[in-house]
Amino acid sequence: MTFKSTALSLLVLAGLVLAGCGKGPETAAGPAAPGKKLTVGFAQEGAENAWRAANTGSFQAEAKKRGIDLKFTEAQGKEENQISAVKSFIAQHVDAIVIAPVVETGWEPVLKEARDANIPVILSDRSIKVDDDKLYACFVGSDFKKEGQMIAQWLIQHTGGKGRILELVGTPGSAPANDRHNAFADAIKGTNLTIIDSQSGDFKRDGGKQVMEAFLKKYKKGDFDIVYSHNDDMAIGAIQAIEEAGLKPGTDILIISIDGLKEAVQAIVDGKINCVVECNPLAGPVVFDAVAKVVAGQTVPRISYNPDQLFDQTNAAAAVASRQY
Ligand code: AHR
Question: DSSP string of 9-27?
Answer without folding.
Answer: HHHHHHHHHHTTSB-PPP-
